[in-house]
Amino acid sequence: MSARSIRLISLLLLALALVAPYVGLYPVFVMKLLCFALFACAFNLLLGFTGLLSFGHAAFFGGAAYVTGWFIKAQGWTPELGVLAGVVGAALLGLIFGGVAIRRQGIYFAMVTLALAQMVFFLCLQAPFTGGEDGLQGVPRGSLLGLLPLGSDIVMYYVVLAVFVAAYLGIQRIVTSPFGQVLKMIRENEPRAISLGYEVDRYKLMAFVLSAALSGLAGSLKTVVMGFSTLSDVHWSMSGEVILMSLLGGVGTFFGPVLGAGVVIALQNMLADKVGAWVTVIIGAIFVVCVLAFRKGMVGELVGWLDHRRTRKATAGQGGATQAAHEARASEAQADITA
Amino acid sequence: MEIFGIPHQAFLGQLMLGLVNGAFYAILSLGLAVIFGLLDIVNFAHGALYMLGAFAAWIALDSFGINYWLALIVAPLAVGVVGVLIERLLLKRLYGLDPLYGLLLTFGLSLIFEGVFRERFGVSGQSYPVPELLSGATNLGFMILPNYRAWVVLASLVVCLGTWFIIERTRLGAYLRAGTENARLVQAFGVNVPLMVMLTYGAGAALAAFAGVLAAPIVQVTPLMGSNLIIVVFAVVVIGGMGSILGSVITGLGLGVIEGLTRVFYPEASNVVVFVIMAIVLMLRPAGLFGKEA
């Protein structure tokens, strides 16, 4: 997909987002969507661009949510300081998690992050200041920098949108920078990166901390918007949800996580009152279907299809035979012993 | 008599409970290790299969009047069939891909199973009666031993040792271990590797279900019983390393005991002590206590 078309789509989406409250979309819903889209983008930074699957990102999201909620409610901080505290907390947590988890790779890495996040869950369950099962309720929105009251949903919406756009551009900048290229190299061929002299573990840790901090930003924003933080923010099912958003949207793409978050949140919203526990089943089924047949996600499949069409049109003159032969060889290479 | 300031009955009682939990950790981490060894898949659905086993026993009793002893055989068989179906229809398509996809697929499966059962049975637990032969307790003098819990530990040890024996000392086990190292070569020798893989997953599922039946009279049979347990079992597996069978068993039992002791002396930490140990082991010995890979 060319840079120009990406820019065009970004501008279109931004325009839509700017007018959203005035075209009938409920601001709180879109804000929630933006928070989770940011969460998914932050997660995608780690999975899509560095190749590390973390099953414990709920710890950063929910942890920051609790930190922000406590600082705003119990300490009376202004929202931007509360969010900052949440981000710093999430980054520190990311540093600790990363330091422990990066010692293993692949599957083990995922299991370690899951276990560490579960530890955070139990700590949040038992710590006195989190309110246990009830969570932190009634977190006031306050006034941004003490000047701009955030009580109005419309004002809050534009603030959240601004933060989201800034963070999104930040992630783009990270990914397209030399640092981001090293991350992609680590994803593609880690032994090669090591042999070229890169301190792979340091890069992975940096990516992990960045991803954790941005997830924390999403969680903190969510707390300010919704006014509460609960245990479901740190539960492992939240980790699973963000994985689903990335997977569904397209791991390693730019819009994918945003789209995936949109679909999942919208689905949950629509189905929540109607089907009760079936939401879990549906999410599980989407997981299964995605892994089996839809691994590139919505954006990935779309880009692949567009590329395929372009290649087909280009080779149509040279005869489809070469293309067909190439495809046949590619599918043969995928055959495995258990066929 | 007091041990470390706790009356010795309480101490030994908690030790017993810790052993029981450890027995469950051992069986489940054993199943995970066996499946991971041959299929290279981390079976997130293991907790759901454990839950299925418990529910199978409960449904068997409630709707068909099948008693506990028969359920010990019927439930693992039924869940084993479910496992075989899962492998044949779903997991087979993931071989050759990044093993993380297997984790995600089984995660999705666990959500499906839990959701369906939660919809049907709700979240409050169903109770399953302790079989009469094993009810009550025996007074050993220095402690009161609950009969059923002693049976659980014994049965688990027998099953674990049996599995170890099959894998390490029989021809079938040799094929399995060879298949783990080089599946193509083993298949070239004429061994039906796909069949072996399918049955291995089924056996792993049956092991989990067996643990579920054992657990049914002790814990509440709820759709959520698997998911919280599976995360601790993952930590157990990381601590023990998935290299050896006996390693998984020893680690599982050991961690269960440690958890039980923590509950006596510092109850607030009992939920997280396994994870803390995992973090420590990762810092000192990243491959796990019995692990083989670097």
- When the domains of chain A are counted, the total is 1
Query: If you average the pLDDT of chain A, what whole number results?
Result: 85
Ends apart, CA distance between termini of chain A: 34 Å
Estimated helix fraction of chain A? over 70%
Note the total helix count of chain A.
14
- Order the strands across the largest sheet of chain A as they lie in space: 1-2
Measured by residues with Cβ under 8 Å of the partner chain's Cβ, the largest interface is: A-B, 45 and 50 residues
The total of beta strands of chain B comes to 4
Order of helical and strand elements of chain A: HHHHHEEHHHHHHHHH
CATH class assignment of chain A: Mainly Alpha
Average pLDDT across residues of chain B?
Answer: 87
Order of SSEs of chain B, N→C?
Answer: EEHHHHEEHHHHHHH
Largest sheet of chain A: 2 strands, antiparallel
Oligomer: heterodimer
Instruction: Determine the number of helices of chain B (DSSP H or I, runs of at least 4 residues).
Output: 11
* Binned strand content of chain B: under 5%
Strand content of chain A: under 5%
CATH topology of chain A: ABC transporter involved in vitamin B12 uptake, BtuC
* Rg on CA atoms of chain B, Å: 19 Å
- Name the structural class of chain A: mainly alpha
Number of strands of chain A: 2
